[in-house]
Write a structure and sequence with these properties.
Elements lengths: L14 E7 L4 E4 L2 E3 L7 H15 L4 E8 L4 E7 L3 E4 L13 H6 L15 E3 L6 H5 L24 E5 L6 E2 L5 E4 L5 E4 L6 E5 L10 E5 L2 E8 L2 E6 L11 E5 L5 E3 L6 E5 L2 E5 L5 E5 L5 E5 L5 E4 L3 E5 L5 E6 L12 E6 L2 E6 L5 E6 L5 E6 L11 E3 L4 E4 L2 E4 L5 E4 L3 E7 L2 E6 L4 E5 L7 E2 L12 E2 L3 E8 L2 E8 L9
Length: 488
């Protein structure tokens, strides 16, 4: 094959660095993890990434050094047009065979005698096709889902992909699906193809706390875990696919709520942290005897007293007071509180008869009230479906839309809420779902095993479930289907 570029004419710098572990199917380019598309070999994904990076930097050709997990190191030149030139210098004249990876990169178009000699040439078109250069291959299409779901969901995945064994799954308002990949990165994927849109090395332990919200009028993603509040700026520069989280240290005794208008940190002693400039915290002093609910989009905070919702402006002055009513036997500040959207809050009183009520902050209207055997723990993370105005907090399911309701669902660990339905796993039974506010018994569905889990997350178009497969954990997208499928 004719060589179209003189290797000596390629500048000595920059040198891209590819690290490859072919056995684990993992590789990085200049420290950035790469993810092969379904069916694509890691070496092909590596060369493809080099071509894309060189093109983005307007380089006609670039030098690349490849490090394998076996300790081998070799050099090559890759052009933006897809030509690959092996420039590895043999350690001595006895080297006659390249490593396994080099054999994959250098198809046998030359004689065996010169395969190991520097200067061997191969066009990258023999390594990756034109389609692979431009089109993401949706992974795991039609994979059999190893757990049974309700009959309206397909038993075969529209896509499936390996994830970290401790991963959660959730979605952004844009529809992108968030999970943690096996390398420990947070990845946002296109819901139709699973193609990564962006990724981040900063990953909270619990993705259930992750929400899309406002920070000083900027669209951000926020989550808290342990002693850190993570904030990602979603307005990435064009062409950038790696998001960096701003990390804010929080004391283990502080209470964080990110589900209101803007993230809020209750520091105690009537001091509240609200979003400040450059992802810092401004501290506001609130009226003594009140408890903070949410930061406001303007930099203030809304608190609750025993009978009022109090808005404090960024200067620390009371700007508005909205009265609310309670049950006759309640005369104290709420003991527990969870924001469920920008204008609604679930309040709990640990009274003789523990009581939960959901309120609208803007006018103080009490939408629903019930007594329960026990209040959820304050640390319980709300599972939210704002589209249907419904949620679960611990073993309590609630709605605040057209038919407001609160009900305690004992014996069921709720994993997902969608369209006014709560899905979960019974402590002594298989998975079930129930209509929030309905007096009907929870509805089971046919399963492969009593141990089958309920869906981890549900959208309008699909259910998502994670399941182990040998030594991997796989995230499956089960699309809604118009036919009922027999799951026996």
């Amino acid at each position: 094959m004719r060589q179209t570029i003189d290797p000596s004419a390629v500048p000595p710098f920059p040198i891209y660095t590819l690290h490859l572990d072919e056995d684990a199917r993992q590789l990085t380019l200049d420290g950035v993890p790469l993810e092969p598309s379904f069916g694509q070999e890691p070496h092909a994904a590596g060369i493809e990434a080099v071509i894309r990076k060189a093109t983005s930097q307007t380089l006609e050709a670039v030098r690349v050094r490849v490090h394998s997990n076996t300790g081998d190191v070799w050099d090559m030149i890759v052009t933006a047009e897809g030509e690959v030139i092996d420039t590895t210098k043999p350690a001595d004249d006895t080297e006659k065979r390249p490593t396994r990876w080099r054999k994959a990169v250098l198809p046998i178009i030359l004689t065996v005698g010169i395969l190991g000699i520097a200067g061997g040439i191969v066009a990258v078109r023999g390594l990756i096709s034109d389609d692979e250069l431009d089109v993401w291959k949706t992974p795991g299409v039609e994979a059999q889902i190893p757990v049974a779901l309700p009959s309206e969901y397909s038993s075969h995945a529209s896509w499936s992909i390996p994830v970290d064994k401790d991963s959660d799954v959730t979605a952004l308002e844009s529809g992108h699906i968030l999970s943690t990949n096996p390398s420990g990165e947070l990845v946002a994927r296109d819901p139709d193809t699973a193609q990564p849109a962006w990724r981040s090395n900063d990953v909270p332990r619990d993705l259930g706390t992750l929400v899309q919200t406002q920070w000083q009028s900027h669209e951000v993603l926020a989550a808290y875990s342990g002693r850190h509040l993570y904030v990602w700026n979603l307005q990435l520069p064009e062409g950038q696919q790696r998001a960096h989280a701003h990390t804010i240290e929080i004391d283990h005794q502080w209470r964080v709520d990110v589900n209101g208008q803007s993230p809020m940190i209750d520091m105690g002693d009537w001091v509240v942290g609200v979003p400040g400039e450059n992802y810092s915290l401004n501290r506001l002093v609130i009226p003594a005897g009140t408890r903070p609910l949410t930061a406001t989009s303007s930099g203030g905070v809304i608190t609750v007293s025993q009978d009022s919702f109090v808005t404090v402006d960024p200067a620390g002055e009371v700007a508005a007071t909205v009265k609310y009513d309670t049950e006759d036997d309640i005369h104290t500040v709420p003991d527990q509180l969870w924001m469920v959207d920008e204008d609604h809050v679930l309040l709990g009183w640990d009274a003789k008869h523990p009581t939960l009520s959901v309120y609208r902050l803007s006018d103080g209207e009490r939408l629903a009230t019930t007594t329960v055997k026990h209040l959820p723990r304050q640390a319980s993370v709300p599972i939210l479906d704002e589209a249907s105005q419904s949620a679960a907090v611990g073993d309590v399911a609630l709605s605040w839309g057209n038919d407001p309701a609160i009900q305690q669902v004992e014996g069921i660990e709720i994993s997902a809420v969608h369209d006014g339905m709560a899905y979960g796993k019974g402590q002594s039974s298989g998975p079930v779902r129930l209509a929030i506010g309905s007096e009907e018994a929870p509805e089971p569905w046919n399963t492969y095993s009593p141990d089958d889990p309920a869906p981890d997350f549900i959208t309008e178009d699909a259910a998502y479930v994670m399941a182990p497969q040998l030594d991997e954990t796989i995230l499956y997208q089960a699309p809604v289907t118009t036919r009922n499928e027999d799951t026996q």
